[in-house]
Write a structure and sequence with these properties.
By secondary structure, the chain is mostly helical. It is 89% helix and 0% strand.
Length: 132
């Protein structure tokens, strides 16, 4: 047998996959890859959510401790003011509470002024996506 005939005989024994089989395999591989990528992204998102929840819990706990401490300091300050000025305890509480409320109102106005642009950009972004 001639070498070219031997090569042709070997090629004839080997079954080349059809184009449809090749495309089917490619589609299956792409579907598997996309599925695994989606699963990976879902795991990463869940990890980020868990991490954010843990940070939020720590922040809430810290905020609670700071608020309690600040409240006790304000109470002590109010009683000290009342004692020094010669007012009843409720007068010192009202004075310190009023000063704190005024400071909070000033802080709120300043915060709203500095963050108004952020809110406007957020609304613009939200409307550009067609959400309300």
């Amino acid at each position: 047998m001639h070498p070219a005939e031997q090569i042709e005989a070997v090629r004839g024994d080997r079954r080349d996959p059809s184009v449809s089989n090749l495309l089917g395999g490619i589609i299956t591989d792409v579907q598997t890859l996309v599925g695994k990528e989606i699963a990976l992204q879902a795991r990463e998102i869940q990890q980020r959510i868990d991490s954010a929840a843990a940070r939020l819990a720590a922040l809430v706990a810290l905020g609670s401790v700071v608020a309690l401490g600040g409240g006790l300091v304000a109470l002590g300050l109010a009683l000290a003011v009342a004692h020094v000025v010669g007012w009843p305890a409720w007068g010192g509480l009202l004075a310190v509470g009023g000063v704190m409320a005024l400071g909070g109102a000033i802080w709120l106005v300043g915060y709203r002024r500095t963050h108004r642009r952020d809110v406007q950009e957020w609304h613009r972004t939200r409307t550009s996506f067609g959400t309300r």
